[in-house]
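Batch 3, record 17
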Amino acid sequence: MSEILKINNLWGGYKAHVDILHGVSMKVQHGEALGIIGLNGSGKSTLGKAIMNMIPFRKGEISFGSNDVSSLTTSQLSHCGISIMQQGGKVFQTLSVWDNLKLALSKQPNVLETLRSIIPMLQVPKKELQRMMADTLSGGEKHQLSLAMTLATNPHLVILDEPSAGLSPKAVEDMYQLLHAIRNVLGITIILIEQNIARAIDFCDRCMLMSQGLLTFEKIDKFEVLEEIMFNK
Amino acid sequence: MIGQFVINGLITGILYSILAIGFALVYNTTRVFHIAAAGIYVFAAYMFWLFASRFGLPVVPASIIAIVLAGLLSLITELCVYRPLKNRNASLNVSMIASIGLMIIIVNLMVMFFGNETKVINSSIVQPLSFGNIIITFPQLLQAVIGVIALIAFVFVLQSTGWGLKLRALSADESLFETLGYDTYRTRVAVFLASGALIAIASCLTVYDVGLDPNMGMNVLINAIVAMIIGGSGRFNTCILGGISLGVLQSLTVYQFASNWQNAVTFVVLLLFLFLRPQGIAGYKQRTV
Amino acid sequence: MEYVFHIIIMLNIYIMLVLSANLTIGMANLLTMCQAAFYGIGAYIGTFFLTQFNLPFVVIAFLVMVITGTFSFLVSFASVRLKDDYFVIATMGFQLIFFTILYNWTDVTGGPHGLLDVPGIKLFGVYELSGVYEYLILSLIITAIVVWLFHNLASSPFGRVLNAIRADETMALAMGRDTAMFKSWAFFLSAAIAGLAGVVYASYNSYINPNSFKLDESIFILSALFIGGIGNTKGPILGALFVVIIPELLRFVGLPNTIAANLRQIIYGLSLVLVMYYRPQGILGKTILK
Amino acid sequence: MILRLKDIHISFTNAQNETFELLRGVNLDVETGKITALVGGNGTGKTTLFNIISGFEKNYTGIMLFEGKDICNASAHRISLMGIGRLFQNGQLMGGLTLMENMKLASNDSTGEKPFSSLIFPRKWKQSEAQKESQTRKILNRFFGKDNKYLDMLDEDAATFSYGEQRILSLCCLLMGGNRLLLLDEPTSGVNPLFIETTEQIIREMKEKEGLTVLLIEHNMHFVRKVADVCAYLDEGVIAKVGPTDEVLDDKNVRNSYLGL
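Prediction for the assembled complex:
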């Protein structure tokens, strides 16, 4: 197995003086699902955004495949094959569902067919999708659409930033079934940033705990380990 | 008699709509309060006058040149001011102040080169059309026809082309737009070109009827901004609704009171909207969850 | 020499105006575009008192400041409800409504022709000021007081709360400061000082018309403020100095009047853009507009 | 009992007019002179509860008594003046103001903040200013030792401090007087391990030396174990369990539901 993403000593944060990431280093293997878990405010989402260059980082290198991508812009990274699903099921609220998909669909139109076979909410007829406005969708549907858009850019690596946050238990269940299906069908590399620790451990090959802007405790694969770490005396 | 005022109001409203869209193009996509649009409006008017009256070109090519030049000027404002400021992470208020500075520069350059006095485009006198007791002058007819064509064309582009889709997407969510692999800066170039062109269309149509002077820009722009707000900001089609409502309202004010209270009524309506219904007539409330 | 004194008097008036704008914009980060309206309200109300009553100047100044300040509640009301761009456009709306009233309410304001023969200021109710020298001294005294006032205000506990509102309004509220009240006070003081500048201007010029108080004037005051700098006292003073001195320099160079008038505007505009890019807090300013 | 919450309900409506009830009858008694920790998963409404207590959130039903007085209808600044201090979730010092100014603002004593008294009676407020300054020095001396670097940095812009430093200094601000109950929203989040010890010390001293009552939200369970006397677990809109800290944190149900099992 080869590395698809390598991060070396990443420092940075939203504001110039305030570092949230204090030297993060990690490696992601081809085809694996890596979970990043941690407390609120530990910098998980910041790391996701920093990889996509949505917030500037002060120091550090990111390489994707064999290329150094530290200086690329967000849109260039997207063309390279990294895609992010942002927190809270972000979609273009004022546009129809079909328009949302059309925007995301860049290179291979046949991706859409694959996606439509997996994702339940896209399975209504095209006419319906054209009529449906994105802001009338329920929370779960919005997350599904957001995921579909993330995948429609045909990425090699997706970063999923809290795909289940703010959803009802039923919708969370659906979302994870969907994620399993996607892993099986598309076989892409996934970085899953997740609050819900049990879900993350269940879904991912291995998990890393983020704490105070540092990744610690690589390879958490059992729930008991984590409970020990978090609640021990 | 009231019919005449409504018609006048509708035609003014169309012009407001075009200008409001020109402003909203920039405002919705970049969030910059683009006051320099007033300068571009004045610039387009002077270019039109320069080529039509001074160089004696026919009206059509003169206006096309004016539209192209205005689009370019608009692009220059983006490349020389807004983009560098954005790269420096300047706040939107700072960009607005810079925009005011730009407006001052452009307007005064025009005055410096072309003088301060009111000018007219010498158009051939054509017999006004009359329907019953409603009279429509030739420039008004031109404004109505070309204005409606421009609006329809814009709405078509917005709703049915890939470019329009990108535009709507950019104004809905910039960060999502970027993560999907689109280059915001490249789209903004198109946005500014289109904005300049629309502002110039509104400018040329107005100037053809009533002439031009260097101080008109700010006043018209503020009306357009009011139109955008009462229509419902954040979208584009609502500008048309707002523009036409505002035009008719102003015209009826003239009918009921006198033309000099027009501005006061406009702003009282604006304030009422801001306090009671900030999302505008079309009522799309932007959620901040 | 009289000419130089005239310039200094105008400079004094602008120092007051720009400082008054700085109180709301620079310290509390409330971007208003209606400073000229308060300037105008002060000028017109001051003219009314000067013509109707035979009062000492201190009394008139006090009355004008209180009345102009009262008008500021319109703006502070808006500031509670509206944020950012909407607040800016609302204050622009106040400015334009005020101008329309000034322009059209001919019976009271004289309409576009304005008011002629504004009487001079009577110092103690008897001695009427006339001539440049006397106004020079008066304006210097008033400006000195105003500068002293704002300088103290900036470093006083009151100024500190305004700065806190600029930095983080929620936090200021959580620390037990009634932010709405502090903002109203800021608007009140700002309007009152602008009104004071208005009286001095009206009686010195002995003629006022609406064109001195339109939106362009508000924008002019803003440009002076942002070029000079926001958030402290020296920035606004430098700004006022800049906008008053530049035209004289151009005149000194010997440009024809017609070009000079526009050239100075272009210089203002250009400085504004450059300052916003290279030094957004202004040349001598302390804080950056949020 | 310094603070008593009875039957607090709050719901939010989303764009599809679906109503979602976040808090479904929270009952909590905060005991005077103790440190109470409020724990619970993400999105369970802990911060919302703090917003309700400090008066920033008004659309709720229920009863809220602070020292026996009803504070349901009081505005945010009034509540603060009554003696409830707050540290915000990502709260830092106010940038653009100096450290000293931040400390002075945190005091409930507002002498000289009326614009006219500011100008006309400088002597009156100069005194209280001097008092605040000496108090600031005292606090800094206490937590960071004699002649610490912060004493020399009092007149520097607060934005120049690191995030962790700002968090700790914000905690110090709350000691400037007038507060009897402190609401601390994740005092350790984003603070590096070095400063966590200081944070712990400050919170302890708040209780022991100043006799303050502390209610804190925290995700760091080690920290909760170390400082909190009482722990309240918020789940599904109600306080599911209250009791001594170890008892609550060792409860199997609490652990499982917290980790999302």
